[in-house]
Design a protein that fits this description.
The chain is α/β, with parallel strands linked by helices. It contains 25 helices and 8 strands. 55% of the residues lie in helices and 9% in strands. The strands form 2 sheets. Strands 1-6-3-4-2-5 form a 6-stranded mixed sheet. Helix 9 packs across helix 13.
Length: 590
Amino acid sequence: MTLDTRSAELTRKLVISDALSGEFFVPSYQRGYRWGAPEVVKLLDDINTDVIAVSVPRSYYLQPIVVMWREAAGNWELIDGQQRLTTLYLIVKYLRDSNWLPRAKVNYSLAYETRENSREYLDTLNPALRHSNIDFHYIYSAYEAIEKWFEAQPDPEGAAINMRKALAEHVYLIWYQAPKGTDKNELFRRLNVGRILLTDAELIKALVLSKIGADGSRPERQEQIAVQWDSFERDLRDPELWAFITGSATEWPTHIDLLFRAMAGSTDGKEQHRYWVFEKLRPRIENAPAEFWRDVVRMHGLITGWFHDRTLYHLIGFLIATGDRYEFERIVELADGSTNKAFRLALVERIRARIGLTRTRLDDLNYELHREACQQLLLLMNVATVLGPDDMRERRTQRFSFHDHARGSWSVEHIHAQNAAPLTRAEQWKTWLHLHRQGLSAVPGRTEAEDGELFDRIDATIQSIDARAVGIAEKFRKLEDEILAAFAATGDPVLGDDVHLLPNLALLDRGHNSALGNSVFEVKRQEILRLDREGAYIPPCTRNAFLKYYTEDADSQLHLWGPQDRKAYYNELRSVVEPYLLPEPDEATS
């Protein structure tokens, strides 16, 4: 959603204050009040949790109300925010009616274009009329929910006093006054289709443009900033750039929000209230809007500069892909004040700390015991392989696709698996049989006499699965042993405990096929070739392993994952990740 914010007025107003006053006119294009008890109770709970129950109260921000001034009527047309303003009105009414705070009041009123009696009913709340129409029913039900909430508190009177204090000192509505001439019907539709919320970015945009317009700047300066804003938003919507800097393929309503989160600073993993970014940056914008915008331009340039620098792209992309949701902000802080060389060295040190492995510890990594560590290391192998060694980076053009990586659901899988024990469903058995039948057909040197009878039994078992025959599980397990024995006869290795170590592990998308992870090498090789031909994303090192890229003279045993293959693959892994490993303990102290 994009709003014309060039002359919008954006402020914050305490709920109980002279600033939030006057008459709010609810036009006919809005439905009536529809909040139920869950929404009302959640609002009360949130204020109680975030403001009242904490040792140091903090500002709490409600979703913005959007208004437009009606000159002829002398009141505010309420384009968005009816539910919030009505509920707050009812809360303060309860505080007054409870006799604990008889002087409590709000300074605004609500008028309705097509439901004139609703204004009167807000003040009377006559229970005899609650079923007169649907609006009265919801209004009365909301008041009942408020009443029950306070009565359920250990000290209802104390809760009422604390609530009034919170509404008067800490609970804000963000006031968004739409520019004169705005199409109010279109604005209402865009705000309410799918209940799209105003973002921090849109609030910041409104404040920046309004302040730039008020500080005596050239009139065209607002237009220039608006054009730059749209350009930055387009840049950040590049799927590859967005995945690189967020580790996600999921879009946000406004991508430029990412710049403002970084400018607001790291939160050390603590969840923040809604609009904390806007509130954190608001003083800077109000005091020096032009300087603030120059900082936005610099932040955009910083990110796009990282994206176009191959080394920084891969180092930062890996850290963000393996970090938490606040990794980007921490990297921005890491870059602050650093030279390019120092920043690169700091990124490498951060990767070393993230991986946390020495050369000797690589040998001990086990799929069953260290699954997350294996996954991070294998991703690093892929990223570092594409990046290349220091002396070749400037001559390379290929880039690891963090977008393709972000779209997948990755897991550590065995390059060569030796049983289908994890498979428990009939459809999985059927797929496994299909794949291994095709795999045996591709093994060189096999004869029709050897495979004909076995293939007939595989086909019969698949038909039994389709028919949901009795005892199919036992039939499948027996046939599984025969198929694996047929592969073993071709020279397929029996790995034993080595099956779970790094020389036999690669990254695969678990979404491709549940049976693929439990298949022997040749079956996986054939399936990965098929997926690759169809355009599926296969991590480069996974693809290289199944194409025998790392093994000399691989053609003679293309269908096997033998000792020489595992050794060559593991040697390559160690070589590629070497720069990102911690020194051995004796090296660190020498």
